[in-house]
Amino acid sequence: MRRAVAAALCLVALAAAGCGERKERTSPGHPQQLQLMLDFFPNADHAGIYAAQADGRFKQVGLDVKIRTPSDPAAPIRQVAAGRADLAISYEPEVLRARNKGLKVVSVGALVQRPLTSIISLPPAGISTPADLTGKRLGTAGIDYQHAFLQAILRHAGVSPSSVKERNVGFNLVPALLTKKVDAILGGYFNYEAVDLKLRKKKPHVIVVDRAGVPTYNELVFVTSEKNAKREGDAIRSFLGAVARGTRDLRRHPDVRPLLAANPDLDAKLQRASVKILLDQHLFDPAKGRPFAYQDPAAWNAFAAFMHGAGLIRASNASGAFTNARLPGQGP
Q: Which pTM was predicted?
């Protein structure tokens, strides 16, 4: 009876918590190639991945990981959906949007646990709180859910949306801010664009979206196709376990040289400062007692409900969009 009850409880919890032994490979064996497509050019957000590669963590579990850079940030999800990449890094809102369009993709783990997306302004604009956006020009990358973020933030602050002029500046967020085309930007990361501005002595002011009326979400996630999640579950679990250990190595020795080797054009000072924020604020770390890359079901459902309410997706919850069943369990 106890065994039957335990099995029933395991089945109930499987989708949300990944019930089972969850053991990844911990010995080399025959190398299996795995292609990972990044969400953007190599940068501080990927430091744990490059640490894992440099420290031989992937080889330890029998994986030959090839890291690719996308032609544009929208490409990774399409690549995994089409089977042209095994895993990709993307964004929780993009996963929900892709599924809404019929792509059979699923998030198998969180890389960055909380939103990095922020409203960033410079002192002359006088924007200390969302209420100060009244009468201001705000630049975004023209992404629909960024517009939804802004509307939610303005409602939360009691600001009339008609009093804020939203401008699509593409991905030229920082240049638009520096050339005073806009008074603030929404879409830059507090650990990257804001740090870049701080290093330039611009004294940016930052309002993180989930502290201003937007439900929290996983900024960066590992995505694969539904088919691959089932077929290559052990390899995915081993990969995530290796990234967990690479991130642990990074915390012990915050070395950005593997990252700079992957992308020599990076500003070393900016990368070090950005990695420090990610580590100091535990942005790679799940809630206490949860395994690396854990995705909170309640948070995913709340964010999906937010996107549904904004008219961005048909589903009112995140059912099928994520799984914790491929998370790492044991490893060296």
A: 0.90
